[in-house]
């Protein structure tokens, strides 16, 4: 129950930061901002496994769908898919490892941006994939990776503070 509350607070803080503070930290012509929700989903899936990563992704996407006022369920589906894919690498979880989660965050951000392009832009007739990759997807993945390093350290610390009393044998974490 405590873990659910911690993830709920993390998701609410991420959505609030994404919709308020990070809009002032946007750069470039396309107003690129780091995606804290991808960071939370990657961290949850990497630390807890594919099922819990999928649930965290679904509820994070649902909160973002409600907050953004767009199509309900689109981001929930995208983040749920990312949580499920990243959960496959949970068996390689090491507490102080940053390289694998960083690569997962970059790949997840790139995949998330591609899914947004296919389902939200391409369906409206915007077919300039090369420009979208060059000016949106690559800078978004790089900016998210830069912000991911300190954020992941905080999320990993929170994870160990919350779950240490719950697990005595860490091999029981779902993979």
Structure explained in plain terms:
- The chain has 175 residues and is mainly alpha-helical.
- The protein has one domain.
- Helices cover 70% and strands 0% of the residues.
- The protein contains 6 helices and no strands.
- It has helices at residues 2-19, 36-48, 50-68, 74-87, 99-121, 129-163.
- The longest helix has 35 residues, at 129-163.
Tell me the layout of helices and strands.
Layout: H1 2-19, H2 36-48, H3 50-68, H4 74-87, H5 99-121, H6 129-163
Helix pairs in contact: 1-2, 1-3, 2-3, 2-4, 2-5, 2-6, 3-4, 4-5, 5-6
Distance between the termini: 20 Å
Mean pLDDT across every amino acid position: 87
User: What number of domains?
Assistant: 1
Largest sheet, strands/sense/barrel: none
Instruction: Tell me the structural class.
Output: mainly alpha
Q: SSE order in H/E notation?
A: HHHHHH
Question: Which overall shape is indicated by the principal axes computed on the Cα atoms?
Answer: globular
Number of helices: 6
- Approximate strand percentage: under 5%
Number of strands: 0
Radius of gyration: 16 Å
- Spans of at least 5 consecutive residues whose pLDDT stays below 50 are none
Helicity, in percent? 55-70%
């Amino acid at each position: 129950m405590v873990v659910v509350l911690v993830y709920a607070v993390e998701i609410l803080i991420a959505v609030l930061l994404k919709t308020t503070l990070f809009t002032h930290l946007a750069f470039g012509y396309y107003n690129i901002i780091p995606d804290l929700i991808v960071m939370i989903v990657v961290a949850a899936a990497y630390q807890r496994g594919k099922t819990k990563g999928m649930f965290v992704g679904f509820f994070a996407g649902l909160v973002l769908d409600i907050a953004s006022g767009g199509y309900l369920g689109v981001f929930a589906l995208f983040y749920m898919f990312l949580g499920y894919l990243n959960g496959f690498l949970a068996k390689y979880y090491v507490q102080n490892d940053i390289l694998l989660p960083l690569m997962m965050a970059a790949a997840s951000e790139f995949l998330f941006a591609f899914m947004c392009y296919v389902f939200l832009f391409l369906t409206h007739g915007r077919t300039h994939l090369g420009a979208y990759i060059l000016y949106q997807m690559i800078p978004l993945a790089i900016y998210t990776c830069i912000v991911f390093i300190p954020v992941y350290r905080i999320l990993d610390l929170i994870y160990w503070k919350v779950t240490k009393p719950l697990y005595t044998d860490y091999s029981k974490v779902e993979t």
